[in-house]
Amino acid sequence: QKEVEQNSGPLSVPEGAIASLNCTYSDRVSQSFFWYRQYSGKSPELIMSIYSNGDKEDGRFTAQLNKASQYVSLLIRDSQPSDSATYLCAAQGGSEKLVFGKGTKLTVNP
Amino acid sequence: NAGVTQTPKFRILKIGQSMTLQCTQDMNHNYMYWYRQDPGMGLKLIYYSVGAGITDKGEVPNGYNVSRSTTEDFPLRLELAAPSQTSVYFCASNGPGAVSLAGNTDTQYFGPGTRLTVL
Prior knowledge:
The complex is a heterodimer of chains A (110) and B (119).
Chain A: E1 4-6, E2 11-14, E3 19-25, E4 32-38, E5 45-50, E6 54-58, E7 61-66, E8 71-76, E9 85-92, E10 98-100, E11 104-109
Parallel strand pairs in A: 2-11
Antiparallel strand pairs in A: 1-3, 3-8, 4-5, 4-9, 6-7, 7-8, 9-10, 9-11
Chain B: E1 4-7, E2 10-13, E3 19-25, E4 31-37, E5 43-51, E6 54-57, E7 64-66, E8 76-78, E9 87-96, E10 106-110, E11 114-118
Parallel strand pairs in B: 2-11
Antiparallel strand pairs in B: 1-3, 3-8, 4-5, 4-9, 5-6, 7-8, 9-10, 9-11
């Protein structure tokens, strides 16, 4: 069974620090990976996608993918209180289906 | 362009009752999905559809049914509600999206969710 595992958290960082979120996946066939942000009581919102090995930067967010190690990560630089949310890692399989991890709850303290 | 819409937002059911959760998307996406999310458990796929008239089971289909008569609509039916079906239900569609912090990325976009309680 395809699985996506995330570091259990919760993760707490001070404002301005770097938050590091990690994810591993079991299915070597997966080619596309996504990070969703979910505020409490809200639906998941896509914030990053990554398809190739290496780093992908978008503003304060950097996604990293290592297919050999089956590892995906998300770095949030200069963390803000508004980044406090649960972050969901997802791997894409057949029929564009996504397999989600359980999520890591991040709290950024002012 | 409303994206993915779901109704109702909240619902309380008694054990054994039935109901239909509605989902509509206006992005002309072929792929649609139903998930449930229990506290601290991430998202579990219930059913999905790759186009009108085509549906298939996901990871946790028991107790649910779906239909897809049009591209836009993908309703989820609960026939005999049980307390184990208390959850938040999200509908999603897959395709190019207009609203995403990651730009115009071909991936899943979620509706606002339906919070269902079965007592």
